[in-house]
Every structure is written in C-alpha cells, then in structure tokens.
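Why should sequence recovery work at all? Because a backbone constrains its sequence more than one might expect. Tight turns favour small or flexible residues, buried strands favour hydrophobic ones, and helices have their own preferences. The token representation captures these environments compactly. In the example below, the structure is given first.
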C-alpha cells in the first residue's frame, strides 16, 4: 500500500504527530534547570578559589596540587554540563539561534547523539580519574585514611575502571556501527 501524501493524512493523525513533535519543548525547562546548575557550580568554584587563595603562601606542594585538582574537577563538571546543555537542546529541542556565529564554539551543531555519548563518557572518566588521583595523594594522611580505607579505595578503582571500560565499549560499538553502515 503506498504511503499517503501529507495532505491525505487523517487530521487526527496529523494532530497527534504535531503534538508529539511539540512535546520536545517540555525538555526546555530541564535545560534551563541545567543552566542554574552551572551557576551553582560556578559559585562553588569561586567559593573554593576564594577559600584557598589566601593560603597559597603557606600551602604545601601536595595541598596545592589537591586544590588545583579540585578546581579542575569542578571545571570539567561545568564543561560536562555545557555539553549536555547545548548538544541536548540542539539535538532534541531546537537549533540555537545565537546571532554571532564567530562566538559559537566550533563543535556546536555538529555533535550528534553518538558524539554526545562519547563526550559525556570522556568527561565522566576524566572526573573519575581526578577524584581517584586526589584520593591516592591523600593516602597516609590520618583524616583521609579515616574516610577512605583500603576497601573504599578498592571500590573507587573498580568504579573508575568500569567507567573506562564503558567508554571503550561505547567507542567500539560506535566504530562497529559506522563500519557496518559503510559495508
């Protein structure tokens, strides 16, 4: 049976399809909420920076590395939020019409769902690695050892390796899918 032309589609079906398509706008408040989360993360970043800045002259090298790793961790989480915010909005709601194309990041509008997954898992692995590195640097400190014993460190490593393995498997699946499409 041939596919009906758009003007031959039943009005009820057209209304349902239009309603489903317009339902994508229900995601917009979620992306606005993520913008608020980014503002919260910025506040926390600035709070940490202001807290540690006066201590810079008396801080040990190990402590300064931990502070820097904390700030990098927060900035990576912010990057992750932006990736989800921009790519999610553009992929699922509407294209961003921001006027000045020179100020637009090069990757915007080019990250499809597969690319979004890879960027997400890459950011999660980086955040996990930084968190794990911070914990390793605290080994031998009484206050940290009281919180993170051998079992907690073991699980941090297992969780990190799970993220890494997931990322590799996702990349492999994307590679196999792309290869199957070519052949």
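From this structural description, the recovered sequence reads:
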């Amino acid at each position: 049976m041939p596919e009906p032309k758009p003007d031959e589609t039943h009005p009820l079906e057209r209304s349902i399809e239009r309603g489903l398509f317009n339902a994508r706008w229900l995601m917009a408040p979620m992306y606005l909420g993520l913008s608020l989360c980014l503002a919260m993360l910025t506040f926390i970043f600035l709070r940490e920076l202001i807290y540690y800045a006066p201590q810079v002259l008396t801080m040990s090298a190990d402590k300064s590395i931990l502070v820097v790793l904390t700030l990098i961790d927060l900035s990576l989480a912010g990057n992750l939020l932006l990736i989800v915010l921009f790519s999610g909005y553009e992929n699922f709601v509407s294209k961003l019409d921001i006027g000045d194309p020179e100020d637009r990041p090069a990757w915007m509008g080019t990250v499809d769902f597969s690319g979004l997954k890879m960027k997400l898992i890459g950011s999660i692995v980086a955040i996990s690695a930084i968190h794990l590195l911070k914990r390793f640097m605290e080994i031998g400190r009484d206050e940290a050892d009281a919180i993170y014993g051998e079992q907690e460190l073991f699980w941090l490593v297992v969780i990190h390796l799970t993220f890494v393995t997931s990322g590799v498997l996702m990349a492999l699946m994307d590679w196999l899918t792309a290869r199957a499409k070519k052949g």
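A few observations help interpret the result. The two ends are 30 Å apart (CA to CA).
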